[in-house]
């Protein structure tokens, strides 16, 4: 007969220790996986290691960006900007080379203050500040130094005087688009220009503030002053829908500020709401159904354009913001536009706040139209980086 023996009993203390050991190992594994996932998300998908002064993201996620170069002519310094397009890692190409775009002589320069894609990513509008030497600059300096124009000068350099604002138009291969019949190379006196949805019409601001809105078709040179008799303190474009949103005091509906929708084709003005105050950062949501702005230095106000009376107010501190794709939160950089700071997601309906990208500070940012990624530039040398938002 085979003897049957009972299984040995395990000490309860050993059981508890083993359970804790397994639980600790599982927790450590989860933390390691979470850290690896976090590092993967925090690694930029694209890095442009240049001083990227201005940029814009197209609907196909192509990034157009500018890189400044400084040229010295005697005591004057001129800035001249290259324009580049990046469609992915290792897929960068220069479409405008500064010295070919504006050759020397004469001594002159241009600063691209902002740059904008057309809705179909085939054309680009460049809002620029032109630079030019004062009359007689070369002769006058040569006489002072007793030479015939040597570029060397040991006195401190000074920036060339401004030649005014202008709008330059190019296609996505860098070919210049000129306005038919125009006497000047660029649209002079133009500010903040953009292409409309037909890829043939350009709108821009002049004067101001308050500003006048202009429209032109480069192909035929026909220029029109829109909304004759009205001027606007703030204007943002919704180019893909051929409209703009503006804040003005001259609609005569009520005393004070009015937020209005502007049809840029039919020239109709549709008042949306009377504003008690406006501090800045007028920003349209991705769907075009909501708009936000700072009423003062503390609160951002969100309006549903279909029901402007239903207003959401969130205390966040003044800054500049973009929208999440689901439009339930905004990404905020507090402080002045030209100052670097961390980026904070702010919940519009749950009062939540949390920072992204390890509390690193950035000078500028833009969320891609599809809401899946963000482009930032770093303080100092404005290196451009593309991160996933997922």
- Uncertain stretches: 1-8, 30-41, 139-153
Shape, please?
globular
- Please tally the helical runs, counting DSSP H or I stretches of 4 or more residues: 3
Strand content: 35-45%
Sheet of most strands: 5 strands, mixed
Number of distinct beta strands = 29
Please identify the structural class as seen in this structure: mainly beta
How does this model look, in words?
By secondary structure, the protein is mainly β. Among the domains are: 52-195; 276-390, YVTN repeat-like/Quinoprotein amine dehydrogenase (Methylamine Dehydrogenase, Chain H), CATH 2.130.10. 11% of the residues lie in helices and 44% in strands. It has three helices and 29 strands. The protein has helices at 12-42, 98-101, 137-145, and strands at residues 46-48, 55-57, 63-73, 76-86, 92-96, 108-117, 123-132, 158-159, 162-171, 187-188, 191-195, 202-206, 212-217, 222-226, 234-238, 243-248, 257-263, 269-275, 280-284, 290-294, 299-304, 307-315, 319-323, 329-334, 343-347, 353-355, 364-367, 373-377, 384-388. The strands form seven sheets. Strands 2, 3, 4, 5 and 8 form a five-stranded mixed β-sheet that branches. The protein starts with 11 loop residues before the first helix and ends with a strand.
Write the layout of secondary structure elements.
Layout (H helix, E strand, L loop, with lengths): L11 H31 L3 E3 L6 E3 L5 E11 L2 E11 L5 E5 L1 H4 L6 E10 L5 E10 L4 H9 L12 E2 L2 E10 L15 E2 L2 E5 L6 E5 L5 E6 L4 E5 L7 E5 L4 E6 L8 E7 L5 E7 L4 E5 L5 E5 L4 E6 L2 E9 L3 E5 L5 E6 L8 E5 L5 E3 L8 E4 L5 E5 L6 E5 L2
Parallel strand pairs: 4-8
Antiparallel strand pairs: 1-29, 2-3, 3-4, 4-5, 6-7, 7-9, 9-10, 11-12, 12-13, 13-14, 15-16, 16-17, 17-18, 19-20, 20-21, 21-22, 23-24, 24-25, 25-26, 27-28, 28-29
């Amino acid at each position: 007969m085979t003897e049957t023996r009972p299984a040995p009993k395990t000490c309860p203390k050993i059981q508890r220790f083993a359970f804790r050991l397994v639980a600790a190992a599982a927790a450590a594994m989860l933390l390691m996986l979470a850290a690896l996932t976090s590092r993967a998300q925090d690694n930029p998908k694209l890095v442009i290691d240049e001083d990227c002064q201005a940029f814009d993201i197209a609907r196909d996620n192509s990034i157009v960006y500018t890189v400044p170069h400084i040229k010295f002519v005697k005591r004057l310094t001129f800035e001249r900007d290259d324009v580049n397009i990046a469609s992915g890692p290792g897929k960068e190409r220069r479409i405008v080379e500064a010295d070919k775009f504006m050759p020397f002589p004469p001594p002159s320069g241009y600063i691209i203050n902002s740059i904008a894609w057309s809705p179909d990513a085939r054309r680009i509008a460049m809002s620029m500040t032109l630079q030019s030497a004062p009359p007689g600059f070369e002769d006058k300096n040569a006489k002072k130094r007793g030479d015939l124009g040597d570029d060397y000068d040991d006195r401190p350099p000074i920036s060339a005087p401004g030649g005014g604002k202008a709008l330059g138009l190019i296609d996505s291969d860098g070919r210049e688009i000129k306005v038919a019949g125009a006497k000047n190379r660029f649209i002079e006196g133009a500010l903040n220009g953009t292409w409309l949805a037909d890829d043939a019409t350009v709108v821009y601001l002049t004067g101001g503030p308050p500003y006048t809105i202009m429209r032109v078709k480069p192909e035929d040179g026909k220029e029109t002053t829109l909304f004759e008799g009205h001027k606007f303190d703030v204007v943002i474009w919704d180019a893909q829908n051929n409209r703009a949103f503006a804040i003005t005091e001259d609609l005569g509906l009520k005393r004070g500020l009015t937020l209005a929708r502007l049809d840029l084709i039919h020239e109709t003005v549709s008042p949306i709401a009377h504003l008690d105050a406006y501090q800045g950062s007028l920003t349209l949501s991705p769907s075009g159904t909501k708009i936000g702005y700072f009423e003062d230095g503390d609160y951002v106000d969100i309006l549903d354009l279909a029901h402007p009376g239903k207003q959401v107010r969130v205390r966040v501190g003044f800054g500049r913001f973009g929208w999440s794709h689901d439009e339930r939160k905004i990404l905020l950089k507090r402080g002045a536009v030209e100052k670097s700071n961390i980026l904070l997601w702010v919940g519009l309906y749950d009062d939540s706040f949390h920072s992204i990208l390890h509390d690193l500070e950035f000078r500028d940012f833009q969320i891609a139209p599809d809401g899946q990624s963000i482009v930032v530039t770093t303080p100092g040398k404005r290196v451009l980086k593309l991160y996933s938002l997922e």
